[in-house]
Input
Amino acid sequence: MDVAQLVRDVVGVDVSEVVERTGGQLSTVYEVRTSADPVIVKVYAPEWLWKQAKEVHVYGMLEQELTGSIPRVMHVGDGVTMLSKVDGVPLSEAEPPDWRAMYAQLGELLQRVHRIAQPAYGYLTDQILDPLPDNDQYMRRQFAKKLQEFEQLGGDPKLHADITAHVEQHAHLFADNRAAALCHNDFHEGNILVDPTSWRVNGFIDVENAIAADPLIDLAKTIQYSAHDNPEKLAGLTDGYGAVPADRIDLYRLYHSLELWDWFQSTGETTYLDSIAQDLAKLVER
Output
């Protein structure tokens, strides 16, 4: 594919450079530098066209609430999507002087995502797959699936039993959520773009893990993957998002750690398995 010519045809500007940014199994990503603003072009392999459709659908849902904070879909073709480029550097590569103020911005941004209601619970493509009507059914299904994977992948039997008992003991908390919302489901520092001069959060990218679920499962993933137990980051999230029930957050943190252990083990990446297992053990002790 002639990426430069595509951009000339769609945007009507001169192209000065095409830089391949990543080449993964889902898509090849190009940054195209032009006489105007740079654009991003993603080229999908045929087997991942459903991921392309998902990305376009999710950005479409986000557009009204978050215009300016997300890539704008400029063109959709057969296996190719053109997006505007969100300025900034990943927060994971930055060192802001005030983490609390930074995470307050993240909390405010995530709160805006969660204003987008969903009609049911489930995994998103360009629709909700295997939708369920309430959070209790959805989370019981998700925990059962991840616990089965943990067992099949050779996870510690005692830890499996402890997690199973803990989930059953706390499963009544699932019903405290009454409505599904759009969840980014990967809202960590690597996907947040910031201005390293003003320390303003410019926006976020990478919606390919999006789900329709309890908003707190999204917030819990940010805590588990990025904030961890950093008091400044946690205080900032509360400042921006608002206070939330700690017990449900902890239950969802357990889910995310279980899911991550399963994923690493399934890929053969064993480096982090022991530390994740330790996190799981600590979470069931709470």
User: Anything to note?
Assistant: The CA atoms of residues 6 and 198 lie 34 Å apart. The mean pLDDT is 96. The two ends are 54 Å apart (CA to CA). The longest strand covers residues 15-23.
